[in-house]
Amino acid sequence: MTHLTKMSIDLIFQNISRHIQLDKTEADFFISLLQSKKLKRKEFLLKQGDTCRTENFIVKGCLRTYTIDDNGFEHIVMFGIEYWWVGDLFSFLTQSPATYFIDALEDTEILQISKANLDKLFEIVPKFERFFRLILQNAFIAQQQRINQNLSYTAEQRYLDFITKHPDLEQRLSQKQVSAYLGITPVFLSMLRKKLSQK
Amino acid sequence: MTHLTKMSIDLIFQNISRHIQLDKTEADFFISLLQSKKLKRKEFLLKQGDTCRTENFIVKGCLRTYTIDDNGFEHIVMFGIEYWWVGDLFSFLTQSPATYFIDALEDTEILQISKANLDKLFEIVPKFERFFRLILQNAFIAQQQRINQNLSYTAEQRYLDFITKHPDLEQRLSQKQVSAYLGITPVFLSMLRKKLSQK
DNA sequence: GATAAAAATTAAAGTAGTTTAATAAATTAC
DNA sequence: GTAATTTATTAAACTACTTTAATTTTTATC
Predict the structure, then answer these.
(1) CB-based burial label for B131 (10 Å; 0-12, 13-18, 19+)
(2) Within an 8 Å CB–CB cutoff, is residue B4 touching chain A?
């Protein structure tokens, strides 16, 4: 745990002010509930089975939330980059063992809020109920779209959609990570890319 | 639009009181914002391209939210039964054309709240921000689990998981609907069932 | 209660995506 | 800066799931 920088504070308020307006007292109180943390590439934020004790706002870097199946294959349920909130929500809310692993794909800096502090925040500044409802709404809609695409599209269509919708992310990720998100093998993604490049 | 019955009012308060507590004035105000509607089996609540003007609480019956792909196949992103809220959230929030079709798989009764009335509700009884945040949290977690299963499991595993987790639903749905939810063809589901029954 | 329509079953041929394995290219680490 | 490790490519054999089509069973309709 390191000291909160001015830059990271600015960044999180930039995110928050898109949804709710805070006065000075509310803003200061919110900041007092946060802790800063840095993760080296490949370092874990959460391991399956541990309890997720914080919700995490990414100031800089890239995280992935994933599982490992019975055959040892990784499956990525979400990536997180700057401005995203990440965590294992179920584990966080119920303080029960986590379903997911979360680790850093780049050196990453996050701001953390504990469950106790978030509960306190909701109680003292109820506006934050609204903030997290809005964040959740967006995440819910994005997830529903992904479910629909997984049902409706071929791997090729999903890949094309991914690079169109997230050109920024595609730059930062290895093909292995992209394939683990799309639900195909790295070998097949390589074949798709070859085929598409020949068109 | 029909009159709100005592039964449907009781049912929605049963749902709400699991998350927030209301006094008489708040409860009466909430009820004044609702409208009741009945749908016959096969009737549409929403069609792709139309604007989703209400969020809908199911009092009785069963709805499905789905898309139709370029080849005319239906893909179900969610079922809704008693106590569930359904709608096309993106279309509802932005009042833009809907992505999804929603229709009734059984004769169904719902309670509806319009966007204007929900906005008013949040303003006058902010506790409802919390209520919808909690509803959304649960829906988000369930969707994330489904994404993970679509990535990690074979069709057989997903089917077994579905009937274990939703034995009630399985009873009420045709195999065609179940297959459109699992992301496989009705033919393949039939083959799976035969194989499993022989074990 | 007969007829029509929709859903489920079965089988056989076809295909999108996997697996395995070998090689090449890129990245990491000392 | 070189060795070691990880990632990407390619090809060939394989399999989970689809497609088509014919038949049976169930459900809906008047």
Answers:
(1) buried
(2) no
Q: Which domains does chain B have, with CATH numbers?
A: 6-128 (2.60.120.10)
Q: How do residues B108-158 score in pLDDT, each as one tens digit?
A: 999 999 999 999 999 999 999 999 999 999 999 999 999 999 999 999 999
Residue whose token pair is 């928050």? A16
Q: What is the mean pLDDT of residues A20-38?
A: 96
Identify the closest residue of chain A to B72 by CA–CA distance: A152
Tell me which residues of chain B, numbers 71 to 90, contact chain A at a CB-CB cutoff of 8 Å.
73, 75-78, 89-90
Helical H runs in chain B? 6-16, 24-32, 89-94, 115-124, 127-152, 155-165, 167-172, 175-182, 186-197
- Judged by CB atoms closer than 8 Å, whether chains meet at A140 and B89 is answered as yes
Say if pTM beats, i.e. exceeds, 0.85: yes
